[in-house]
């Protein structure tokens, strides 16, 4: 067994094997697994004998803890989590009429360095383990006394750059004896790594795939997203079609509106061609300006005009209701502020 595991990394079966390995009965695994799923700290799992708790503390790192919450005027909250090694990550908690959704991080930092995004500014610090992804949800449930029903993997990090851990997390979080969150209620957002998209399709996780497109020509996309040096838009949309064919799930394209870059009439037209022949939806995002980045967003009215243009072309499209912008809602902004000790 992995001696560097975080509490929450294991399945119920793994914990059963662990309990046997420390001379305990396998039924203790169920108590532990349920305690973890409820976000209870190991010290407080009073149904486990003290000696067992002490042993577990020695064998596993603690899951993430929410150290700050920043409530927004719009009802959402930004959470700052601290990991066992002192690293900080963030998440956004969004209550809706249909349930509660939580935006979680998959890495500390990010390797992708997209021009508009704060997460990649300092590069990648490390991958999160499955238990650290799960722990973001259990900590949120515990703190708010509500139950997260929907998850979006849209916080810091590129989920498909941490493929194995993310797929394992998806298995754990949908486990009936654990949090039991429906695959239908999970969205994974990627900058578009074609091989990984195909592998995800084949792995039958069945989650909704969101792809950060942000441009309709390779030239503009390369300006915004370094990953576009490696893969063309065509390679990305071919993989998206494959994902749709394999899973039957509609593809969502994320498109952050940047004035003078990607809002031309021809962009609307090209979007129509890129989304033709399979179920696809375009989600327009208003730029959340990041300190030190000189990209220009657009007004609500301009966004609505572009949306109308897409709809006139017969494209299924919406303008994302942005939440938490008054509390550093965009990926990586909060962690950066904390690292820079900026006033908040
Ligand atoms: N790495 C993944 C998921 C994280 S980002 C991805 O690239 O999809 C989630 C979405 O927010 C992406 O579409 C990303 O491009 C977008 N985003 C990041 N920073 C933003 C900002 N400052 N304003 C608007 N959208 C942003």
Strand order of the largest sheet: 1-2-3-4-7-8-9-10-11-12
The computed structural class is alpha/beta
Q: Mean pLDDT, as a whole number? A: 93
Spans with pLDDT under 50 lasting ≥5 residues? none
Number of DSSP E strands: 12
Q: Note the overall shape.
A: globular
Largest β sheet strand count, sense and barrel closure: 10 strands, mixed
What proportion strand? 15-25%
What percent of residues adopt helix (DSSP H or I)? 25-40%
Which assembly state applies to the chains in this document? single chain
* Straight-line N-to-C gap: 42 Å
Question: What value does the Rg take, in angstroms?
Answer: 21 Å
Helical region count?
11
Which cofactor or ligand species appear?
Answer: S-adenosyl-L-homocysteine
User: What is the H/E order?
Assistant: HHHEEEEEEHEHEHEHHEHEHEH
Q: What can you tell me about this protein's structure?
A:
The chain starts with 11 loop residues before the first helix and ends with a helix. It has helices at 12-21, 27-37, 50-59, 130-144, 163-173, 194-202, 218-224, 233-247, 265-274, 300-312, 333-340, and strands spanning 65-71, 77-82, 88-96, 99-103, 107-109, 124-127, 150-153, 186-190, 208-212, 251-257, 280-286, 317-319. 44% of the residues are buried. By secondary structure, it is of the alpha/beta class. It is built from eleven helices and twelve strands.
């Amino acid at each position: 067994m992995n001696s560097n595991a975080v509490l929450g990394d294991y399945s119920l079966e793994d914990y059963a094997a662990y309990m046997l390995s420390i001379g305990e009965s396998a039924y203790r695994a169920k108590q532990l697994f349920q305690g973890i799923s409820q976000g209870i700290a190991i010290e407080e799992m009073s149904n486990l004998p003290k000696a067992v708790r002490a042993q577990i503390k020695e064998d596993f790192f603690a899951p993430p803890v929410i150290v700050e919450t920043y409530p927004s005027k719009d009802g959402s909250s930004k959470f700052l989590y601290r990991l066992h090694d002192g690293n900080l990550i963030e998440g956004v908690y969004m209550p809706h009429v249909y349930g509660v959704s939580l935006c979680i991080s998959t890495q500390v930092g990010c390797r992708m360095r997209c021009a508009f995004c704060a997460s990649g500014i300092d590069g990648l610090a490390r991958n999160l383990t499955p238990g650290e992804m799960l722990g973001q949800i259990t900590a949120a449930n515990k703190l708010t006394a509500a139950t997260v029903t929907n998850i979006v993997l849209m916080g810091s990090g590129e989920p498909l750059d941490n493929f194995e851990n993310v797929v394992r997390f998806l298995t754990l979080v949908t486990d009936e004896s654990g949090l039991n969150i429906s695959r239908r209620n999970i969205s994974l957002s990627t900058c578009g790594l074609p091989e990984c998209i195909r592998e995800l399709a084949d792995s039958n996780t069945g989650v909704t795939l969101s792809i950060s497109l942000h441009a309709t020509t390779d030239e503009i996309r390369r300006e915004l997203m370094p990953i576009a040096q490696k893969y063309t838009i065509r390679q990305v949309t071919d993989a998206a079609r494959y994902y749709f064919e394999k899973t039957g799930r509609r593809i969502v394209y994320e498109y952050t509106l940047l004035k003078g870059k990607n809002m031309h009439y021809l962009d609307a037209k090209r979007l129509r061609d890129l989304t033709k022949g399979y179920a696809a939806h375009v989600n327009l995002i208003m730029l959340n300006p990041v300190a030190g980045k000189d990209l220009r967003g657009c007004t609500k009215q301009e966004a609505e005009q572009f949306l109308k243009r897409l709809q006139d072309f017969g494209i299924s499209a919406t303008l994302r209701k942005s939440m938490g912008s008054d509390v550093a809602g965009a990926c990586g902004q909060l962690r950066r502020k904390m690292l820079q000790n900026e006033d908040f």
